[in-house]
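Input:
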Amino acid sequence: MISLFDALIQLIVAFFATVSFAVLFQVPKNQYLWSGITGSLGWLCYLLVNQGYGSVVIASFAATLVLTALSRFFAVWRRTPITIFLICGLFPLVPGAGIYYTAYYFIMGDNAMAAVKGTETLKIAAAITLGIVLILSLPQKIFRLGLSKDRF
Amino acid sequence: MENENSPLELAVLAGRILLSNGAEIFRVQETMERIAASYHMDTFHVYAISNGIFACGMENGVAHTAEIRHVPLAPVHLGRVTAVNQLSREISQGKHSVPEAFARLREIETLPFTADWVQVLASGVGSGCFCYLFGGSPFDCVVAFFSGLMVYLFILLAGKRHLSKIMTNILASAVAAFCGLSLFELGMGHSMSHIIIGSIIPLVPGVPLTNSIRDFFNGDYISGTIRLIDTLLIASCIAIGVGFVLKVASIMGIAVGVPV
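Output:
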């Protein structure tokens, strides 16, 4: 199990990682904090599930559930398109490492490992898709959480 | 020339700004319909796909049509999406006349990007942080930071030279792999793989992937497919760029190590 200290460091690093993408995508400055929180809590969930089950695919799915729900809540609360939180928060989960390893093994002639990594990359993408779709299907009123009705 | 009193033209301009700055199709259509309804257009129909908007409507008994074609190569600017969203909310509350709303949209259309050096720095910080998240040591992160700076400098340069999107992605990921590899060979960092993974992160197609999923979810299959192809193409470009550099290195006899 990861120590509390490690988890804290990971949270902070994931926060800055997400915020740096918020800067790259020109997110308004007053939303940096919230997109950062979305990204870091999503990443924490990924870490914990990955530790518990040892599957990056299930971990990506669980993390996507958490961060999409958070994005929807922030979108209602901050009166902002959900895109802002979702795109930035999702970045740590997008399988950049998968693309790299697939290319690496492919180029090095290890086709078996290339296939393993390529399939895993596609599975992660499918898990992210499923996670987003499930949470987007929930009715909007769940995410209002007592906020007044004029916030849509 | 646009007619500054036409709600149809106003809706189309709002739709174009949303579409070219990274909004999903559903939001584009919904915002345009909301604007048209707020100004009491008799009828209004819109069809948007990821590279075009077709709208027709009836104003004071006269039918108008408008059509926008757009090539989705523009960089994402979520600040403009947020601003249009806010404006459309104010329009539905009846706060703006059509010419006023036009003036606001023109301001939003030209909202600036953050300074180049800030973007480059953000790319470096992003690369360094992701290198750590994917298991790199702190030393690797520092190397990935510099590598990430170089990648984004290259992207900005390529943007100014109007290099095609495919070439930009292939060359930028080659730059990432080259920087990571050469810094590693100079004795910096512990894991070449983690350094390179960190530095390709600014290229990874997170925006088209997310938008593709959301378009599919809303039933906009054509746009979802276009963006899915965009995602796969970018991912392939990254693989080609990185793979090329690694292959050349291994042919030259440089040990590219076993990834961890």
